[in-house]
Automatic annotation (TrEMBL):
GO terms for MF: manganese ion binding; metalloaminopeptidase activity
PANTHER family according to UniProt: CYTOSOL AMINOPEPTIDASE (PTHR11963:SF23), LEUCINE AMINOPEPTIDASE-RELATED (PTHR11963)
Official protein name in the record: Probable cytosol aminopeptidase
Cofactor annotation: Mn(2+)
Catalytic reaction(s) noted: Release of an N-terminal amino acid, Xaa-|-Yaa-, in which Xaa is preferably Leu, but may be other amino acids including Pro although not Arg or Lys, and Yaa may be Pro. Amino acid amides and methyl esters are also readily hydrolyzed, but rates on arylamides are exceedingly low; Release of an N-terminal amino acid, preferentially leucine, but not glutamic or aspartic acids
Amino acid sequence: MKVSISKSVKNEKKYAQCVVMAKSAFGKSAYAKLCKPFGFEGEGKFFLQESRILVVCVDELESDCLRESGANIVRYFKGLPYEGVNVSIEGKIDNKKAYALLLGALCGEYECMSYKSKTKANALKEFVLVEQKTSLDSSIVTKAEIIAQSVNATRELINTIPQVATPKYLAKYAKGLSKELDKIECKILDESLLEKEKMGAFLAVNRASCNPPRLIHLSYKPKGATKRVVLVGKGLTYDCGGLSLKPADFMVTMKADKSGGCAVMEIVRAIARLGANVEVHSIVGAAENMIGGNAYKPDDVLYSREGKSIEVRNTDAEGRLVLADCLSYAQDLKPDILIDFATLTGACVVALGEYTSGIMGHNDKLKLEFEKIALDSGELMACLPFNRHLKKLIESKIADVCNVGSSRYGGAISAGLFLSEFIRDEYKDKWLHIDIAGPAYVEKEWDINPSGASGAGVRAGIEFILTQAVKG
Ligand code: BES
Ligand code: ZN
Ligand code: ZN
């Protein structure tokens, strides 16, 4: 589907019309009379079949509502025979609001159809935002397209079944991105290179899998870049829990444990396509947490790349082990800012609900800055506070640190504090940990997201990096 901005209505025969307005404006609008006989009074949406007009009422004419209505308009016309829709907004609109609507429309179009034998043909080929009063910047169309393509590609990659999407598959995907865009470089570390790098924690997690692990390093290095941002993503292509096996019901959806890894790769792609003046790296720790005779065990002690020893008490707390070694590798790149994205803990979902990501770190200013940008981008995120009492929970009697906290409370934070053990002092204030366990994969449609993978982290990550470019 194509999105565009036009001063005039496209009067094609097979086009429908749509008007978006604030609920409060409905009563006095010209549509109130037309809708009245059908009992529609401005709550939600109503399609006037004869005149082919979809009336959409939103709480307020602001970005969050407009983004969601963009998605809802496209969803509504899916399966109907219209080839395009002219969308107009009753009221004042600016670039920010128009962008939100277009992005919502493009993200609302995606649905995972790869495993269905019948494909739904989407008749809707064009989404035209008709705007006569203000002159909108045409660059918002390009930006919405680039970002939505990254969001949707992330979703598709996460939704890819674990039988297919192995660590090698993710590495191949990354190589594909660097082939598509000259500006992106791709380096892959296989098992023997991981050994060479002394990534004992990462390697232990993958040991019982018949699929070899990969560390994927994508980079975009524009000339004259003023900042270097390094992203790290948890890329567990499957997490059955290992010997601390997950109960059957909790194992389902664990193909999505690669969400952070998929997101960081697509963030690099979007930033490169947008041509931002920031150097960006993404490091994906791609592994599979399985069971077998050679599996790592609760009671094992692992040696991480940073030199710290780790007592394993639960093999299901595997993401932090992979990330510990990836964060170590990432710090060697001397980042100005280091951010990891991970479906790290169920505790984060308990704490914030399934729609909100948790932001952790030692730098309050950076945390708040990221939170604000995330919320502006349309992603729900909230800061979770570290404290010295929870830090004690990951002390180990026999090793330097333990991979799980001794209390079941505060699990999202103790996981964040575990990662912090592998952040060198000079990078403590440059690092953020984003736990996307809740919103990364939700098995029902919500906001602009379909059932399944949402692409959590992609919009927030891109917008954050773009602000770094402006700052210089
Ligand atoms: N991948 C899971 C976390 C998760 C849970 C992501 C639900 C998405 C939805 C992670 O590896 C895990 O299993 N964490 C454990 C940690 C515990 C053993 C300390 C958890 O959250 O239960
Ligand atoms: Zn796990
Ligand atoms: Zn996991």
